[in-house]
Structures are given as structure tokens and as C-alpha cells.
Design goal:
Length: about 400
């Protein structure tokens, strides 16, 4: 096993992203498309690990359910070339009365230094007369290897009476922070690493305080952590002006996980990524820059696919969602492959996926795009160099 040693420079807030186009499309058990990606860096195997949602085939929808999603997994050495696992890692239970009777969707992944944590949106049988599944809330599962999962059968954040959707988690100095979109605002829970006890949800981002561009609601939080920054926790989030898909993406930072300051560059305007067209997004640090994975409809297939975009900042060693890094050691004895990554997700009124066709963009790398630290660009995919120590 290669032992890794990470050295990070504090990353500045992004002002925009450059689109690389689609990097993962559905196949096999996920032939109905892939969406809502959530990505983590795995230091022991030197690879990116993505979890995503995919619609099941009609014959696999549990009886009485309107539809069903399962959660799959893919791995990549560079964030752009992905290998799909053959089978889902988490599926609906199909058991009457359980929170995930009908569907599991909108995954959020975190390795907290002790275990893998998978958060997801759970749904059950539709209410009488309803055409969509009834949201149960945000579920939680844990794993030693990120493949075999133990599900906490009671939801972590129950659905009450407002739309509840995508979650995201990061860890700072031994505390796990979980952000949850409960429209129109974003709420947060926390727990010490190794504990099963969570705090009560606290509102941390009020849509009315963000600005007119997010006056309708804020949603789709994606958390990262940078211990070298004065405000170590950062969040990429979406804001809608009047309705779904009338949106932009914003950036906020926090020193304590409670008080969040929205960056003045919100909503993001730089780069060439069409922020208004994204259905989901997820961000990771990469050296002094960031990579974002997103999902939207591929017009060629009509199915959802995952794309990637990067900042024009110097990209470098991948950074996990926990800081200090659980993969770091005191000695430098290995090599680090650097790569790319994204996601986010917006919940519909029933707590399920929302989607809308959109065009994929081209990478702006050739002129004014993200060229620093890159080895080359081929076939629309950004490949980052390997740094030997």
C-alpha cells in the first residue's frame, strides 16, 4: 500500500468553473442514466470514488411505488475516466413501512477518518391519491469499505411538511457536519466522529439573507474542508430566483459550522459552465483550486449523465472531505495522482429528483481556461498531471 503525504495551500473561493463536458454515462445496471453524483478522494487506493443515483427498470420498482432509484458506485484515478461497479451498493428495501420502501436517491459520501458515511434521500409508498412517492427524509448508512453498507433504519432527518432533498457532509477536527436542504433554507447537524448521536437541525443559511438571486430558496449544499483557511468549512450551494431552474450557484464559508458568510462573487459568473442548467453538483478541493461534478440530461440519449468542471486556479493534490486529511502521514513515501471531480442536487416538492434537458459545454482550457498544472486536454476531458515526490 502506498503511503501518502499531502501538503495543501489554502484554497481561495472560486469565481467560476470551466466545463469539461460529460465524463460518466449510464450502462448495465445503470442504463437509465446516472445523476446526483457525490465524490470523495480515497487516499489508501489513490482514487476518486463516486456515488450516484440511477432509476431502476420498471420491473424492479417495488409494488405500489410510483418509481424507484438505487445508488451506484464508480471509481477513477483522475476524476474523468470512470469505471462503474456492476451492481448498486444501496437499493430500496421493498419492505412495507420502512423509510426506504420505494427509493434511495441523492447520495452524499464522506470518509470521516473512521468509517464511510453515506447519506441519501429515502421515500416510501405514495400518499393516497398521489402520483409520486412520499418522502421519508434523509437516511444514513455506514461502511468499513464503502461497498457493503449497514443501514440505520430510522431516518436521520425526517420529512415534516416542506420539501427535503440533497445533503452533503464534511469533517473538521473530529466533528462531522451535515448540511441538508429543507426548502427554502439549508439546515445543519453535527456529531463527533465515532458517535451515533447527532445534534438537532439548525438553520445555517436563510434564503432571505442571501440576496435577490436566491430569494426563492437555497438548496443543493456541497461541503468541503480546508484546515489552512481562516474559515475552514466551505459550501457550494444553489439559489433560485423565482422557481426551479431560475438559478445560480453561490459560495459560503464558515469558521465554526454555525455562522456562514456568503462570498461576494455569489452567484458565480466566471468560466463557461451554464450554472442555470445544472440539476445536481458536488465540489472537491484540488490543490488551490476546485473540481465540480454535475448532472444534467444528455440530449443524445435523453438520459441523465455526469459531467465535470474545474476552476482556472492551480490544481494539485486531491483533498478529501475531512480535514486534517485522514490519509496524511508524517513521512513522504508515495506518489499522488491528481485529477478532476462534481455534483449537487435539487429536490423536487416530493423529495425526489428534478431534471431538465441542457446542453453540455466545451472546456475553455485552450484560451483563458484552466491550464495551470495540467498535462493536457484530450477528447474534451481534462487530465491532470502526476506529481512524484
Amino acid at each position: 500500500m502506498t503511503v501518502l503525504f499531502f501538503v495543501y495551500a489554502a484554497a481561495a473561493a472560486p469565481s467560476g468553473f470551466f466545463d469539461l463536458g460529460f465524463v460518466l454515462k449510464g450502462a448495465g445496471a445503470f442504463q437509465n442514466g446516472v445523476g446526483a453524483p457525490s465524490v470523495e478522494w480515497r487516499g489508501d487506493t489513490e482514487e476518486y470514488v463516486m456515488y450516484f443515483e440511477a432509476a431502476t427498470d420498471a420491473e424492479d420498482v417495488p409494488e405500489g411505488c410510483a418509481n424507484s432509484f438505487h445508488i451506484g458506485r464508480a471509481t477513477s484515478p483522475d476524476g474523468v475516466t470512470w469505471a462503474l461497479d456492476e451492481a448498486p451498493v444501496l437499493t430500496a428495501s421493498g419492505v412495507a413501512g420502512t423509510p426506504r420502501e420505494c427509493s434511495v436517491a441523492q447520495p452524499a459520501i464522506l470518509f470521516d477518518g473512521t468509517q464511510w458515511n453515506l447519506f441519501y434521500s429515502a421515500s416510501k409508498l405514495p400518499n393516497e391519491g398521489a402520483a409520486t412517492n412520499a418522502p421519508s427524509g434523509i437516511g444514513w448508512a455506514t461502511s468499513a469499505d464503502g461497498i457493503a453498507w449497514t443501514v440505520v433504519e430510522e431516518v436521520l432527518v425526517p420529512f415534516v411538511d416542506t420539501s427535503i432533498g440533497l445533503s452533503s457532509a464534511a469533517a473538521l477536527n473530529g466533528v462531522v457536519y451535515l448540511e441538508v436542504a429543507e426548502l427554502p433554507d439549508i439546515f445543519q447537524l453535527s456529531r463527533p466522529v465515532g458517535s451515533s448521536t447527532w445534534s438537532e437541525p439548525v438553520r445555517v443559511l436563510d434564503h432571505l439573507s442571501v440576496g435577490e438571486w436566491a430569494g426563492h430558496w437555497v438548496h443543493g449544499p456541497s461541503l468541503v474542508c480546508d484546515e489552512a483557511a481562516s474559515r475552514p468549512l466551505a459550501m457550494l450551494f444553489g439559489g433560485d430566483t423565482e422557481g426551479t431552474f431560475e438559478r445560480g450557484l453561490g459560495w459560503a464559508e464558515s469558521a465554526d459550522g454555525v455562522s456562514w458568510a456568503v462570498d461576494t462573487n455569489s452567484p458565480l459568473a466566471g468560466g463557461n459552465l451554464d450554472y442555470s442548467a445544472l440539476n445536481h453538483w458536488d465540489v472537491l478541493r484540488s490543490g488551490a483550486g476546485y473540481v465540480v461534478w454535475y448532472s444534467r440530461t444528455d440530449e443524445e440519449s435523453g438520459e441523465k449523465a455526469v459531467g465535470a468542471a474545474v476552476t482556472d486556479t492551480q490544481l494539485g493534490d486531491p483533498a478529501p472531505r475531512a480535514c486534517p486529511s485522514p490519509w496524511a502521514v508524517e513521512e513522504d513515501t508515495g506518489s499522488v495522482d491528481t485529477g478532476v471531480g462534481d455534483t449537487g442536487d435539487t429536490a423536487g416538492d416530493d423529495g425526489e429528483d428534478t431534471d431538465e434537458p441542457a446542453e453540455s459545454g466545451d472546456c475553455g482550457c485552450a484560451s483563458g481556461g484552466p491550464v495551470a498544472g495540467l498535462v493536457g486536454v484530450g477528447l474534451g476531458l481534462l487530465l491532470l498531471g502526476t506529481r512524484r515526490r
